[in-house]
Every structure is written in structure tokens, then in C-alpha cells.
Design a protein that fits this description.
homodimer, 10 strands, Rossmann fold, 20 helices, five-stranded parallel sheet, 13% strand, alpha/beta
Chain lengths: 493, 493
């Protein structure tokens, strides 16, 4: 892939001086339109070999454009905060919102390339990592991000020359370290590895653009022109979500499904309940105080029909723990800030650090439940969400986070009873709205969506637990018990 | 993923009898419309556990629909023919054309599942394989195929019961083998492995549909209804290619590119040419007769400007070999049969068996050259072609096939000279057409396309060789020499 970037591209000084003012003006204008439209974010990846002008280019972009709407992120060794979370967390947290430009100087590629050069991974593992990256970028582009990936390349000879020039210059000498010279020696391997990675990750939606870094005028003009063309062409041809081309998911053709098989008559009398509550809350308390839990974390997801008792169950779980250990995140309509980001961003922000617990009262499953049923997102969007969610949870599990998911199920009749009760009891009135009644009308559509959800996202590592919740006491104990069992089983591993 | 398929789905006999005639009629009608429109192929994958009614379903489909337009493929151990080619070749050769239905009973998933159950692959290798499958199906759906993947599931208990019932029935006893009982023992592992694979390959474009196989009436109705809905909904909402959302690939911003760096003045005087020709043809002859070559094969690709001398070079290469060893495949406009298939199908057919040579006079690179420049395919199509081509060639290389690619380059002036010469020499007149003159007008656009092609598809394992071909003798020797060197280098490994 580097042939075109080793032929000595060069721009004449005079031409450069003529072209730059025009290009800068156009870039500023494009950026202004980007901010105004606020329809998509621009994600610029900057990678390449040492001495190919990466940092100079990054600085130039900030200089040429309005720095208020462009953010540059360098990625050194992960911080404490970051080490506590899955690898991709550090990138999710700084994704630019719609209308803004994020420059990633070093990115999700850096470690992959370095580890391969250092022979820390075998080829199959590298390909595994590549696959994850491809899926991640696929999600970004499907969520409308404009992803531009620049790879700056120079020959080994040029690299040597630059380092020597720096060393001679008293003002730049500090830039050259022993490691730099070590890396020059690894040049061939570095190129071989990165060529493989670039090729495998040069997708139709987010291809790599290799730029020869020797002549700064050529480099600058190329980057500027690519950027300008990419932004203006996307602005004039807005992203249209494509109709799903998949075979449709059908509702069950008999009247049986996983919810209808639940024994909804199960109850737990008060005395047994009290005893069990004390038992399991005590157990849960001990479990999260175990030393092994300090190397883990818990993400508990609560979903369920309106009035199924999510709140009550969550309170019983929370009551078992010190308030400093857990956070409850209620998920409602997304904020403006959240709407400007890929769908999963609002959940990534709340991933707990090691030894902590995050409880989600409703969750990322909204996309395949309410958003699907109410047509709040396209069919393609919720169809791909199953994959994205599985990916997301796999990353949590691989990071030793325990993922527990509860569906609180009540019958249609029980819901009616509770709705009516809520309307009559004054302090419960705030809990029932017109929307609840409207949702109720779509019971069947929700049922189909719930079954598809469980079928497509219940995994060995992050299983769904269906909770028969017509009896609140029974439900609460089942939740606590399951949680304890899952924690025990995982921590034994 | 199997929860919904373990709950005892069942259809009442009476309802079944009522619904089937209607469903069959609709299916036949849908199939008729599918054949008439001939806009997309339907690819049905049938997988699942033993005893879940896979073969019964496959037979039923042939019975319910018009068997002239539906083809069922079973895949046992690969044939001689198939073993000689890359793994995916056996599937490519039987892909259904547009308008037809292909049922794959066993598929590209079978070996992957079996190998994992037998612990023949480590998880990272499995994921590598999964990634390849996802890319393959992504290509199929991007090429408009409707891909429907059924997975038939029953519990271990049902599986046992069915086998015992077969054993008791004298007419069906033959169906039960020792292996079947061995496999029942591996049930848990089989489910665990296939759940992972199903989840990872359940993409938005081609999700798995898990069907409970216990009750044949439920199974049949489900398959029939999914199929009907999938075909009719695609017929009424034709596939629309989406505008590419990638940042555009720009032409070089200075006037330098990999072609402009070639020293086009190189020549080879006749006497040296004659000597070299004899030398390298002899060498090539010896190389393909080496015993190691019997375990390999050669795919040589010739691309170049009109009148660059592809034919002459190919003749010099061919002349070095026994005519039984090689085939020359001239690639012109695709045939009707080829147009009804995914783009790469017409090239897959010609992959040589071991020990043989296929020479392509023009090739799959047409998509990123003439089809790109002449707008014969969409931007998304040629943008994703770089990946598809790299994948394709990687499969060849992994199968020990040597891939050599030559771009024969001439200057614009030299082309003009040759065109004029062709017009004047009677026996060469057939070689020059209006189209050649028209192509010439788009010289710059072709140049950009060629540079992008070389940059994005020249790999260590399947490199491009740029041949300075203003002097025919020089070009022919460079081709022969490079070919010999590449064969030598690869066979040493």
C-alpha cells in the first residue's frame, strides 16, 4: 500500500503559496456549515511511521480551522481511569458529537500495530482484533460518522535523515530519543505489519488514505483537500439510512413464545419472603465485598413491562450494598448531548470501574424494544443493534465485568390491575401516564420484540433472566438469588 | 439463542391443514414472480442439530415449490475437484443465479462448527474463520442476494427420542448410525459452539432464524412463512445501492504518481532479447515442472493500457509451457450467465487445480478500472471491490496458489503511435476500434484508477509488477523474469 507514498511527491513553493489561502478559506467555510448542520461528526485518524509529519499535520489542522470545533486527542499509556474500563472506553468517551471534528492522534490502531511488531500477538489474535475494529468502524459509519483515516508514510532513509536533522538542531534535539532510533531499526517489520492491518481495515465505508510525508507542502495540501472534499460532499449528499435488506423477523406462528411458557402464578408468602430477602441481601453484600470482586465489576440491567416492578427490585438490590459502591442509572429519553453521539455512547459513559456496580433502570435494549416498536429508529438500525449490543457486552465480559440482565414479566391482566390501582392511590398517580396506556395497546408487538431480544442477545456470558413478576415478592427474591448465583459462579472461575 | 426453540412450539393439525394449501399457493406465486423478475438470487442455508428435521424441510421446499427453479446442494467430504481449490470454491460454483433459489444443506458453517466441537481450532482461529464468513455473506448481500439462514434446534431429549423411534422402525433403522449416538453425547458442546457462531454471524443483513424442530407442522409453517414474507417483501422493495458514504479517493495533487515514476525509456536490443527470452522461457518451463509445483498453482493476471502488448507477453509466457498445463482466459464483457452472479463468480470458475496455470487476459480488476471510470457500477461497488479482491486473492494464496499481477504501462504518445500503426496495417486493423479511441480520452481518469488499484491491492503475497512496456522486448523479458523470480521465491518457502 505504500508504493504511491515513496515516489517523492512534492509541491512547488509558489504553487503552495497560491493554493493555501483558498484552501484554508474553503475549509473554514466547510467547517462552519458542518457545525450549522450538526448532522454528522467527523472522525479523523492520524497514524503512520515516525518522522512522517503526523504531529505537524495535526497542529496544522487546528491552525487552519476553527479550533473551537475541532478537538485533538493524543493517546499515551492509559490513565488509571481508563485502565479500569474495557479497552475501547477511552475512545468512546472522546468521540466528537455531530457537527464537530475529532482528531485521533494515535487511535485504536496504535496498540494493535505495536503489539504485532513486538510479536506480542499471534496472527489469529491480530485478525481477531482487526475484526473488532472493523465492526466498531462499521458501527460508527452506520451511525453517520464521517471517518477519515490518514496514514503518513516516509521511507526509512527519510526517517533517518529527519532524526539526524533534529539531533543537529539544538532547539529540536529533545525530540529524538533512544527509542526513536530503536524504532527506525524496526522499520521493515513495522511497514509489513501495518500494511497488513491497513489493507484489512480499508473498508468501503472507511478506507485508509496513505499520504507521503516527506514534503510538508504536499502533505498539507493533500490532507486539506481530502478533508475539504469529504466534508463538502457529505454535506451535499446527506446520509440516507438504507431499507433493511434482511429477511424480516416474524412473530411466532403459534401462540407460544418464551414469555408464554413462564409460570406466572408463582408467589412467595410474606414470612418466607422476609427471610429470603435478609438471606440474599446479606449474601450479595458479602459477595461484592470479597477481594476477588475488586478485580471485577457488575453491570445489572433491568428491563420489564410498565409497572412490572423494576424500581422495587432495584431498591432491594441496592439496599444490599454500600451506597458508595453502586450507581443506579435511569434511562429515559436521550439528552441532546447523547443524541449527538452513536447510540451506545450514553451507556459506555456509565461503565463502572473495577469493584463497582452499575444498575441500569432500562438500558441499551431500548433500541430493540421501544425504538423498534414505536418506529423511533429504522429497521436497519435495530437489526444491527443486536450485533452491536452483543459486541458491547462481550467487551464488558472480556474485561471481567459481570453482566446480569433481568426481564421483569407481568401478565396483561396484572398490568391493568396495577394501572388502575395507580390511578386511584394518590401518591402513585405520578407513576401512570397516558403513554403507559398507549404502550399497553401495543402489547403484542412488544411481546415479539422481547422474544427476539432474548433470543438474539442471551448469551452464556451475559444471559437474560426472565422473572415472573406478577407477585412482587417472588420477583424480588428471584432477582437477588440469580444475581448472587451469577456472581458466585463467575468469581469461582 | 435457543431459548425460543425449546418451548414446545406446536401447530394444531386442523389449523395446519387449513393453512398449508394457501401457503403453498402463495409460495409458488412468489417463486414465479422471483423467476420473472430475475433481480436477485435466494440463498437458503439449512443448519442445526441432528434430528431437528433439516432434511425433511429441504425435501418439503422442493415439494412445495417449482423444483425447476430451486436447487438443493448437500456437502459431504469435498471431491477431488474441490480439494484442489480453495475452500470456498465448492460453494461459489453452485451459487444460484438471479431469479433462482439455492438451498444449502450444510454450508460454509458445517466444518467450522464440527472443527470447533472437535477442538481442532483455537478460539482465535475460529473467530478468524467467522470473520471470513461474515465478509463473504456481506459480499453476497451487497451483490443483492437474499440470504436466509435457518437453524433447526431440538433438545437433547427430543434428539434421543427421535433416534430411538428410528431404530425401532425397520424402514428407518438404516438412518441411525453409531456416529449419530456419538453426536448426541456431544450435544451440549455442539450447542455451545454453535450458539457462539450463530451470534457472531447473525448480521443485520443476514440474521439467523432459529426454528424449533420438534413438531413438523410448526417447522414447516415457520419455514414456509418466513420464506414467503422474505421473497415478497424484497420483490416489492427492490434493493437500492446506497451512495458511498466514504471520503472520496482523490487524484494525486501534484503530477506525480507511481506510473509517472517509471523510466519509460528502457529498451532491450534484439540480440540480448533473444538470448534472455530463451533463458527465461527455459527457466519457467523447468520451474513449473518441478515436483513442488504439483502442490501449487499459478494465477497470472495481465492488465494494461489498450495496445500495451498484453497479448504478446502472454504468448511468450504460454510458449514456455506445455499446452496441457495452462489456460488463457480472456475477459471481455460478462455473459448473461455471469451477470446473474456476484461479480467475482466468473473468476472463481477458472481457478486452476494444483500444478496448473491460469493466465487472465484482463481480470477482476476490471471493476476498479473500466467499471469505475465508465460508471458501469456504483461507487460503493468499486469501493468495496478492493476488499473483496484482497479477500479473494488471500484465499488463493492461502491455498498455495501463486498470484502474479502485471500492469503493462505505455506512454500516451506510444499508444497514439500504435493506434495509428494499427489503422494502417491491414492485419492489425481488427485490433483497433472506436472504443479504444474513446478510452484514450479518459486517460487521466484511468491513471487515477490504476494508481488507486496498485496502492490498495498490491500485497506482499500478491504483488503488482509495473512493466515499462514502451519497448515490447523489454516488457516481455521483465514479465518472464519477474514470473520466474516469484515462482522461485515462493517455492523455496
Amino acid at each position: 500500500m505504500f508504493e504511491s507514498a515513496e515516489i517523492g511527491h512534492k509541491i512547488d513553493k509558489k504553487i503552495y503559496k497560491e493554493e493555501v489561502p483558498e484552501l484554508r478559506a474553503s475549509l473554514i467555510e466547510a467547517q462552519f456549515n458542518l457545525v450549522q448542520a450538526a448532522k454528522f461528526p467527523v472522525i479523523i485518524l492520524v497514524g503512520g511511521v515516525d518522522g512522517a509529519g503526523r504531529s505537524e499535520t495535526v497542529n496544522l489542522l487546528s491552525e487552519w480551522m476553527d479550533p473551537r470545533h475541532i478537538q485533538v486527542h493524543g493517546f499515551g499509556p492509559p490513565t488509571d481511569e481508563e485502565r479500569q474500563r474495557p479497552y475501547m472506553w477511552r475512545f468512546w468517551r472522546v468521540l466528537p458529537p455531530k457537527g464537530k471534528i475529532g482528531v485521533f492522534f494515535g487511535s485504536w490502531y496504535t496498540d494493535m500495530v505495536e503489539d504485532s511488531v513486538a510479536d506480542k500477538v499471534i496472527p489469529a489474535q491480530l485478525d481477531q482484533h482487526i475484526h473488532q475494529i472493523v465492526q466498531f468502524e462499521h458501527m460508527l459509519t452506520a451511525e453517520k460518522a464521517l471517518v477519515i483515516k490518514f496514514w503518513f508514510h516516509v521511507t526509512q532513509k527519510t526517517q533517518r535523515k529527519r532524526l539526524k536533522a533534529f539531533e543537529k538542531d539544538p532547539k529540536l534535539r529533545w525530540r529524538v530519543t533512544k527509542q526513536d532510533w530503536e524504532r527506525v531499526k524496526q522499520y521493515d517489520k513495522y511497514c509489513q505489519v501495518s500494511e497488513h492491518i491497513l489493507r484489512e481495515t480499508s473498508t468501503a465505508e472507511a478506507p485508509w488514505i496513505v499520504v507521503e510525508g516527506t514534503d510538508h507542502k504536499y502533505r498539507n495540501l493533500t490532507v486539506g483537500k481530502v478533508l475539504l472534499e469529504a466534508i463538502t460532499s457529505r454535506l451535499s449528499h446527506p446520509f440516507k439510512e438504507r431499507r433493511s435488506t434482511a429477511p424480516p423477523l416474524l412473530p411466532p406462528i403459534d401462540n407460544q413464545h418464551i414469555l408464554s411458557t413462564l409460570d406466572m402464578t408463582q408467589t412467595l408468602p410474606k414470612p418466607e419472603y422476609k427471610e429470603a430477602l435478609e438471606h440474599y441481601q446479606g449474601k450479595l453484600n458479602l459477595l461484592v465485598r470479597q477481594p476477588q470482586f475488586a478485580q471485577r465489576a457488575l453491570v445489572a440491567v433491568f428491563e420489564g413491562w410498565d409497572s412490572a416492578g423494576k424500581g422495587g427490585s432495584i431498591r432491594r438490590v441496592a439496599a444490599a450494598m454500600d451506597a458508595r459502591w453502586y450507581t443506579v442509572i435511569p434511562i429515559g429519553a436521550p439528552t441532546e448531548e447523547e443524541l449527538a453521539q452513536p447510540y451506545l455512547w450514553r451507556f459506555w459513559r456509565h461503565i463502572p470501574q473495577r469493584g463497582r456496580v452499575t444498575i441500569f433502570d432500562r438500558s441499551w435494549y431500548g433500541r430493540v424494544l421501544v425504538e423498534r416498536v414505536e418506529n423511533l429508529c429504522s429497521e436497519s438500525a435495530w437489526m444491527r443493534a443486536y450485533n452491536e449490543i452483543n459486541d458491547f457486552e462481550k467487551q464488558l465480559v472480556n474485561h471481567n465485568i459481570i453482566v446480569a440482565k433481568f426481564w421483569l414479566n407481568i401478565s396483561k391482566e396484572e398490568q391493568l390491575r396495577r394501572f388502575k390501582e395507580r390511578e386511584q392511590v394518590r401518591f402513585k398517580q405520578f407513576k401512570i401516564t397516558d403513554e403507559d396506556w398507549r404502550n399497553r395497546e401495543k402489547w403484542d408487538a412488544y411481546e415479539t420484540a422481547i422474544c427476539d431480544m432474548v433470543e438474539r442477545t442471551s448469551t452464556l456470558e451475559a444471559p437474560w433472566t426472565l422473572v415472573e413478576a406478577n407477585d412482587k415478592r417472588f420477583a424480588r427474591i428471584k432477582v437477588l438469588k440469580t444475581l448472587c448465583e451469577q456472581l458466585e459462579a463467575t468469581m469461582k472461575q
